[in-house]
Write a structure and sequence with these properties.
A hairpin with a 4-residue loop joins strand 2 and strand 3. It contains two helices and three strands. By secondary structure, the protein is an alpha+beta fold. It is globular, with a radius of gyration of 13 Å. The chain starts with 17 loop residues before the first strand and ends with a strand. The chain has one domain (28-98). It has helices spanning 29-51, 73-81; strands spanning 18-20, 89-91, 96-98. Helix 1 packs across helix 2. A three-stranded mixed sheet has the order 1-2-3, with no helix packed on it.
């Protein structure tokens, strides 16, 4: 089990737009890249739901959109990132990624 599951991310309710963090277990370019890709796919899915007029629990960023049952560090990081509704800039230790 990784520390990501044992630590409370206390700023979900804030309007966090940028996050710079290093996460234990996310230690290769492939893992980092996959976490970012899953986060971006989740953001796109949320935007599509918003465009279709879905609201409330249907838009919950904690949804199991990211590979239900996937307990990889990459999927868990992506699920946490999706909780930040205004997050646009992410650095997980390798490079800065921006999502408009």
């Amino acid at each position: 089990m990784f520390d990501i599951d044992m630590t409370q991310w206390g700023c979900h309710d804030l309007d966090l737009e940028e996050l710079y963090i290093v996460i234990r277990g996310l230690d290769t370019w492939e893992k980092f890249n996959r976490a970012i890709q899953l986060w971006r796919e989740g953001r796109i899915a949320i935007r599509k739901k918003q465009a279709n007029g879905e609201q409330g629990s249907a838009l919950c960023p904690q949804m199991n959109y990211i590979l239900p049952g996937d307990n990889s560090i990459e999927a868990r990081v992506a699920r946490h990132l999706l909780k930040f509704k205004k997050l646009r800039v992410v650095w997980l230790g390798w490079t800065v990624w921006r999502f408009a």
